[in-house]
Every structure is written in structure tokens, then in C-alpha cells.
Amino acid sequence: MDTQALVTIVPSTFVLTILNLFIQIFLMKKFLFQPVKRILEERQKRADQNIRAAEQEKAEAEAVKAEYTENMARAREEAASILERAKQDASQQADELLANARTEAQSLKAKAENDIRQERKRALNEAKDEIGGLAMDIAGRVVEREIHESDYRALIDDFLQKVEDAS
């Protein structure tokens, strides 16, 4: 067989092969590449939308986190304020109770002192009455008899003894 016949180029076959190649390229472009390109573009759009949605959700989550942090800080401040007010109220109530107790103690002390003064006056008045009675009794005895110095001293000692017994 002739090796040169196998390597030769037949012009009609060559043209038909090139024409066949262009038709295949055209058909692949029309029916394969364009739909695949559209599918890839749609996927790219969906991926971009998902990324934008994720970024938006992330921004919203960060906003919610910031709001939560702010609310927690306000709550802590409010709790500290409430605690401080409670301490102040408790301190004020303790001071008021202490002042009331002091006032009441002073009032009771004043009343007791007043009662003691009145009781002392009453005791002194009773003692004066008794002393007056004793003095009258002594004066009556003195008038009844003549007083000697020894009798006078005995009367005075008797009087002092009765005063001591009375008190």
C-alpha cells in the first residue's frame, strides 16, 4: 500500500471537516455554553444575594447585640441605683429610729425626774408635817415642865431619833 495516499489531503473532505467543526462549535455554543453560562450567572446572583442577606443579618445581629449590651449596662446601672437608694433609705430609717428612741428616752428620763421631784416634794411635805407635829409635841412638853439642860438634850435626841425613824 501506498503510504503517501494515506497522508494526502483531499480538498472536499478538508472543507467538509472544517465546516463540520464550525457547525459543532456553533451548536455547542448555542445549546451548551449559553445555558451553562445562564445557569452559572443565576447561581452567581443567588450566591451574591445570599452573601448580601448574610451580611445584612450579621449587621442586624450586631445591632441587636449592641442593644442588648446597652440594655444590660442600663440594667446594671439601675440595679446599682436601686441598691444605693435602698441603702440610703435604710440608713435614713435607722437614723430616724435612733432619733425617735433618743427622744423617747429623754422624754422618759424627764418624766422620771419629774416623778422623782414630785415624790421628793411629797416626802418633804410629809416630813415637814411630821416634824411640825413633833415640834408642837416637844413645845407642849417643854411648856408643861421646866426644862433642865439634861432634859433639853434628851428631848433633842428623842426628836432627832424620831426624824431618823421617819425618814
Helix/strand-derived class? mainly alpha
Number of domains: 1
Characterize the overall form: rod-shaped
How large is the radius of gyration? 64 Å
Look at the structure and give the mean pLDDT. Answer: 84
Percent helix:
over 70%
Report the strand count.
0
Order of helices and strands: HHH
Percent strand equals: under 5%
Number of helices: 3
C-alpha end-to-end distance: 172 Å
**Biggest sheet character:** none
Poorly predicted runs of 5 or more residues? none
Structure at a glance:
The protein is mostly helical and 167 residues long. It has three helices and no strands.
Question: Could you please describe the fold and organization of this structure?
Answer:
It is rod-shaped and about 195 Å long. It has helices at residues 3-7, 11-144, 149-166. Helix content is 94%, strand content 0%. 0% of the residues are buried. The protein is built from 3 helices and no strands. With 167 residues, the protein is mostly helical. The mean pLDDT is 84. It has one domain (8-166).
Features:
167 residues; mainly alpha; 94% helix
List the helices and strands and how they pair.
Layout: H1 3-7, H2 11-144, H3 149-166
